Amino acid sequence: MTDETDGDAETDGGVRAYTVRLELVDEPGELLRALRPIADNGGNLLSIHHQRGNITPRGHIPVEVDLECPPDRFDGIVDALRDAGVNVIQAGEERYGEEVNVVLVGRLVETDLSGTLEAIEADAEAAVVDLSLAAPDGIDETSSARVRLAVDSGRIDEAFSAVRSVADERDLSVVEPLPGGDA
Amino acid sequence: MRLAILGAGAVGRSVAELAGEYGHEVVAIADSSTATVDEVGIDVSSVLASKDAGEGVGSGDPEAVFDSDYDVLIEATPTTLGDAEPGFSHVVRALEDDRHVVLANKGPVAERYEELRDLEAASAGSIRFEATVGGAIPVLSTIEDCTPESVTAVRGVLNGTANFILTRMAAEGLGYEHVLGEAQDLGVAEADPTFDVDGTDAALKFVILANVLSDGGFSLEDAEVDGIQNVPGSALELAAEDGRTIRLIGEATREGVRVGPRLVPENGALAVTGTRNIVQIETRNAGSLHNSGRGAGGPETATAVLSDVGRLPEL
Fold this sequence. Notes:
The complex is a heterodimer of chains A (183) and B (315).
Chain A: E1 16-24, H1 30-40, E2 44-50, E3 61-69, H2 71-83, E4 87-92, E5 97-106, H3 113-123, E6 127-134, E7 143-152, H4 156-169, E8 173-177
Antiparallel strand pairs in A: 1-3, 1-4, 2-3, 5-7, 5-8, 6-7
Helix pairs in contact in A: 1-2, 3-4
Chain B: E1 2-6, H1 10-18, E2 25-30, E3 35-37, H2 44-52, H3 64-67, E4 72-75, H4 87-96, E5 100-103, H5 106-111, H6 113-121, E6 127-128, H7 140-146, E7 151-157, H8 160-172, H9 176-186, H10 194-197, H11 200-214, E8 224-225, H12 233-241, E9 244-252, E10 257-265, E11 276-283, E12 288-294, H13 298-311
Parallel strand pairs in B: 1-2, 1-4, 4-5, 5-6, 8-10
Antiparallel strand pairs in B: 2-3, 7-9, 7-11, 9-10, 11-12
Helix pairs in contact in B: 1-13, 8-9
């Protein structure tokens, strides 16, 4: 391997594919404005799906951008997009990614559900892509949440173990999927 | 084969009742305080009638069983944890006398597997324990046929009570306590359902499976065990939104044993309903095999015991 003395993170083999979902305002020049921060921050554009006919309820146009970049540059790209006022709906590794569901059970609201989800995203290196909450006895009682996580396929076991420890700290229980159980 | 049966609960009695049908003869039977020994074969129906009348299984001392002329000791006393006594000592005595042992009692094979295998190596007799895992379902013999070395994992549902409760909760939208009460009324759950709902019973079975895969090394304290007591109906509803359901699933590999509520596809093989059990045997060269059926019950478990007896060599 080469010495990484030049401080350039863009080394051979260190590039991964990511998908970013954006919502753009329907105005001329918006797409170009949204793509510039990606290129300016070391991202290489692979493809752009610009669905003009598919307008969101808020009147925006959803755009899906596939790009590749070194993993340590990706957060910078997303931050730059947000700084430029671009509405980032979802940002995550997708080409190598897998989506899994877990169910959390406990006093979810009392134990700060959004804090729990943030801790899961940080510790499990996962993106929460969907959330469904059921609190039939009210938010002060035991409730359940189904959380769909986008996780790197190679890191699923580590991600689950991180989810377990986040849940343990908050006295929540986790119902995990059973890998291999579908066979 | 001449059978000596220890334990006159649901399994011990069914073994006694069915032994003749399988070509075997019962020469001794004992419960915790009484026994009958008869070298020419005991009269099973009169012994069981005496047990039903609350008079034990005879007038003999249970100790007399070990002095009788038997080929196979059937260990069907209640499962105990930790030192697995008195079941463990029963097995030791039979092996030291160069007799075979067939266990329905999970304790000795879950908690003291290596000791049993060492004793077996020094004995002319051998031990078998198909009935300890999954009642009537041929689990251990399937693994034996695949050769344990080529089995990479065993997963599944091995507690009918917990499975019944989760199935009812999902189907009727009822709460845990409500369904548990209903299961007790139906006789599906015992008055003290602790070991069924806290995962201990399933864990013992998966510990036995891990011992078979690794030739020992595991006991209950090595297992990571979670029960279903904290699974609310709302969790089952959320799982269903995504085509999943929740089952108390055990997993045994060479790395360890884990039992807990897990998300499984609602229409997948492992999502059996009611008290039914299933195991998925994952093999290196042949994909996954699924064996499903009744995982408990007197006659069901007795068939596993008697199949084991049939697999034993003549002494």
